[in-house]
Amino acid sequence: MKNHYPLPGAAEHVSQPGLPPRVLLDVGDPMEGPTLVVFAGIHGNERSGLESVRRLNRAIDHDQIAVRGRILAVSGNRKAIACNQRFIDRDLNRRWGRTSSSPALGVVSAEDEEQRELVEVLEDARRASPTEEAGGVVLLDLHSTSGKTPAFCCLADAPGNHRLAFALGLPVIFGLEETADGTLLGHYNDLGVPGLAVEGGQHEDPRTIERQVAAIWVLLASIGILDPGLTHVKSATQALAAATKGRPQAVEIVYRHPVHEQDDFKMVSGFASFQRVTQGTVLAHDRRGPVLAPMDGRILLPLYQGEGEDGFFLASDMTAAKLSFLHILRQLRVDRALKLLPGVHTVDGEDAFKVTDSPLRGVNRRVLGLFGYRREGEDNVISRRRQLQ
To answer: What residue numbers bound the domain in which 351 lies?
Structure first.
């Protein structure tokens, strides 16, 4: 299927008179292999994903590439895409949960309607796909950032997602999903659908599209939809390796700086993702004064746009040795002994722990995090496991 929607270049900032189609690309047969569902434009000002899908479509059509499975690409927040803004009423990458799959979900905002349509498309794709053992569905969410950044991926901390992420060769960020409640990927990961998000780079940087396209090619080959020997796949692998040379293999979020509309938050210019900063560095200003780095680390996703709830993140490197050690611990199911920690209690009927309010609360949460448990709920006292295998 060819995509005839006229997309602008990444550097253009013009509003579209109409909406993009919901389905941007749909090729292949889900009975012949896995299904990859690609989301483009969940945030309406991150339009590079739509162009990335168009380039993929063009290459598959022009080179008559054999597809063993299904590639389904969908547009996200169509109304916001047409206006080239992050959202209309609310962030579409929030408020995903079990109620989002219910026909009774009320429509009180533009994003509610978008979300309901996306749920319908996704559930249709899941019903059309065979069992997980025969392939199943994998999700890829394409994003870009307001600040300068190399490409990277983020994911819910689960073994199936690890395999997907490390196959790309991009820096992997752990813990980012924990800072944002109700993300699309987080919701479907809880339902057993693996997936990851790829941040291709800055909104206006034309290399962002190139990195996103490369990530799609590599992921398609890694899950078996495309032949790994394809020239497109080999070139994409080399391109991603070159784009991320010198970056850490993985980092873990250790701090998030939230912002609110009344804060008058303004990031100091010049910061780029993965840049090292030291404790006490002035990173931004708000109505209370300078915003200082609370610790040493790597800055991630500095906010250089008007909309957003995250001013910046700080992360620490995760070495290959640490990743291997954590994998061994999880394989041995050492987490069964976590209930012996002071202030940690099991939750009946759930694969979860409750961390009580005590001086050791912060330490306990960090320990739980090593085993893939993440905070749940506004009070942040429940840590649960996502798809540990």
So the answer is: 333-385
